[in-house]
Description:
This is Carbohydrate ABC transporter membrane protein 1 (CUT1 family). By secondary structure, this protein is an all-alpha fold.
Amino acid sequence: MKINKMYSYSLLIPAGLIYGLFFLYPTIMSFFFGFTRWNLTDWEWIGLENYIMFFEESSLMIGFKNTFIFAFLTAGLKVVLGLIFAVLLTAKLRTKRFIRSLVFFPVLVSTIAVGIAFSVLLHPSEGLVNTVLGLIGLNGPDWLGNPNLAIYSVAFVDVWKGVGIATVIFIAGMMSIPVDYYEAHQMDGGNKFNAFWHITLPLSRPAINAVIILALIGGLRTFDLVWAMTGGGPGFSSDLIASIIYKQYQAGFYGLSTAGNVLLFLMVAVIVFPIFKYLNRKEVDL
């Protein structure tokens, strides 16, 4: 028995080594280098100076505000739209397999490619979106050049790209619900809306919780789509915490950007972990 147990644990060693080498070690070293001024060949211990400088960053408050707007807006829309698509795509539709592929396709496309493509589509004078709006007599705004619209434009593109994975998770959750519940509900004279409200929605809560957590983590850490579409501009109007950190790294402030990454990691943990605990308490067993 003891030998079998040791053998079982030995199978975890390769995965444990990979996890320690590529996650634990870089994480620990990030915490350490956040207290230093470093480059590729040398480092100097400076204590909390990087963290103080990071909080003195002029665009930091804009970055925090945009990060929270982006994360919660995209997470909310992915949950709502993903749930709607999942309900439609689990119904008896002839073309549902094709529509499922269509909804999931944007997930497979490179984020940078999506950002560049939508930068062209949303161009104020030559983009397809404003051209179509012009045909019906509407003057389209400068979607990415207007400081009040830029972050929302990027957020809606992120929803377009990410709603497919939410839909797939919801479909998997709904298909795991026993058919007996719906048959019993129908025999009791219930309609489709009541079936959704009292059966589908409560029993899909694990899938809903998974989508909320994944979307929130992704939204709080987003960088590539914003950078591809606006570069944080115009000005600092669409900067997120991650793009501010990248700009510091570009400027050669490696210790400062490392401290920013540590703070971003802690911020994501502080926000997501309590939400995760709260949502898990609300789950309904099948």
